[in-house]
Amino acid sequence: MSSHEVIALVTDALRGQLAAALPAGTPVVVGAPSADASAQAGLFVHVLRIALAKTRRNEVMERRVGASTLLPPLELELDYLIAGLGGEALAELALLDAALQSVSERPMRMHDTLGEGLSQPARWASLASGSLTVRWLLLDVPLEQMAGLWAASGIRQRAGLLVRAEVQWRAEPPSPAPVIGV
C-alpha cells in the first residue's frame, strides 16, 4: 500500500470516529469549507501537514537480506485541523467538545478497529496483508500560531482542535516459496 492510500485511510478513519461521536446525521466532511459555503451544523477535518516520523527521516528506507528486500514500517505524522462548518456558535462548541472527548478517550486505533465507520470500506480491504496502527495526539498550539494558521488558511476564524495522527503501516513480508520435497 502506498503512503497516499494510508493517508486517505487514516483521514477517513478520523472522520468516521468523529461522526460516531456526534449526534446522528451531523455531517463531518473532509477538507476545509470554501469561503462561500453556506453555514451549517457539523465539523470539518482538514489535513494541514504530512511528514515522515522524526525517527524515520534520516534512515535508509530499505534493507537487503539475502535475495529479498525488507522495508521498514512506514511511519507518518499527519496533522489535522478539526473545526465547525459555521453553524450556531454554542452548538458548534458542543460538537467540538464531543470530538475532543472522542479523540482523547480513544487515542489508539489498532488494525482490527480502524475499519469502523469508514466511508470507503474498499480502501480498508486493501490492507488485508499488513498492519496499521494510529495514535491520536491533541496538539497544544500557542494562540499566536493558531491565529496565524487561520489567517493563512483564509477560513473564518473559530474554535478548533489540532490533532496529530502518529501512523505506522507495516506490510506483511512476502511469504517464502513453498519447499517441495523429493
Total strand segments: 8
Class from helix and strand fractions = alpha+beta
How many strands, which pairing sense, and closed or not: the largest β-sheet?
Answer: 6 strands, mixed
Largest sheet, spatial ordering of strands: 1-2-5-8-7-6
* CA radius of gyration: 19 Å
Outline the low-pLDDT stretches. Answer: none
How helical, in percent, are the residues?
25-40%
What fraction strand?
25-35%
How far apart the termini lie comes to: 37 Å
Q: What value does the average pLDDT take?
A: 82
Number of helices: 4
Q: State the shape.
A: globular
Provide the descriptors you would attach to this structure in a database record.
182 residues; alpha+beta; six-stranded mixed beta sheet; 29% helix; 29% strand
How do you describe this structure in short?
The protein is an alpha+beta fold and 182 residues long.
Please give a structural write-up.
The chain contains four helices and eight strands. With 182 residues, it is α+β, with helices and mostly antiparallel strands. The mean pLDDT is 82.
How are the SSEs placed, and which strands pair?
Blueprint: H1 3-21, E1 28-30, E2 43-52, E3 63-65, E4 68-70, E5 74-84, H2 89-105, E6 108-109, H3 121-125, E7 130-138, H4 143-153, E8 160-171
Parallel strand pairs: 1-2
Antiparallel strand pairs: 2-5, 3-4, 5-8, 6-7, 7-8
